[in-house]
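Instructor's aside before we start: the two examples that follow are unrelated to each other. I chose them only because their records fit on one page, so don't look for a connection. First example below.
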Amino acid sequence: MKLTETTVSSKDVFNGRILHVTHDEVELEDGSSAMREVVRHPGGVCVAALDDDNNLLFVRQFRYPYGETVMELPAGKLEKGSTPLENGKRELLEETGAVGYSYISLGQVYPSPGYTDEVIHLYFCRVAEQRDSRPDEGEFLNVEKIPLFKAAELVLNNQVFDAKTQVAVLKTAMLLTSGKI
């Protein structure tokens, strides 16, 4: 099997500030057709920033879709005209006030491939300097430092629900343990 689907038609359902939703008809491998609802997203970036004491910088912020405060690594959507790394550096500074160095890619994650084309780019860095945070207008958050291995424990104990944060924390812990960072 080729494991492909071919778009036959696509209808715009919603076009907002961040999301674009389409309702697509696709042709399956066996020639039959199916409908797909797709959330188009510009993508995102997430940064695991480790200070000299091996603490990760986290933010807590209210996430409206869940109706609760969520603990996450600094992150944000990709802005046109900037690379994922440039976006990551901007988000880290805005949300935590930290300036990073020695950035390395931790890869990419597809947060929910069943209905969205969003790709989140993950990075690791060391913290060079701590300044005042400068959140975007309408963005309210608290910054916390959590020891890396305590953060990994929180992930493993199902106390961190954000998928991008889980992946970045565990990758960072593995890389530190193996001496690669």
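Example two begins here.
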Amino acid sequence: MTDIADRRTALGILARSPAGLLAERMARIETVPAYTWLRKPETGTLMLRGRIGGDGELFNVGEATLTRCTLRTDDGTVGVGTVLGRNAAKAEQVALCDALLQRPATAASVLSEVIGPLAEAEYERQAREAAEVAASRVDFFTLVRGED
């Protein structure tokens, strides 16, 4: 996986996935290489900024908690992991998965065993939420009084 757009997509899927499901899928990977930390998992805050109407002046919306880490596998591949919240184990798994996706020998198995099922689960979650929202939709209409 060398295309930056594909890597960005994969990292997004990994970061948005529930921690338990990610751990379950990562357990299916048979060969996990040894790695060293370039940056151990650390938790901090991130300022969220927004614009009114999409093109107005920037303003601070609030802060979000973020955990990030960086590791290097035994063959020199660097993996990064960034997740919302305080889950250091999830950030580590995302970083390890990122490194494995960059290695030709392991990329195919990670795509089929981890990324693919997580993407399907995310699609199903989004479809379920969309159905719940659609079910609660209210159509308003105006009644016009007849002339007397």
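The CA atoms of residues 132 and 138 lie 12 Å apart.
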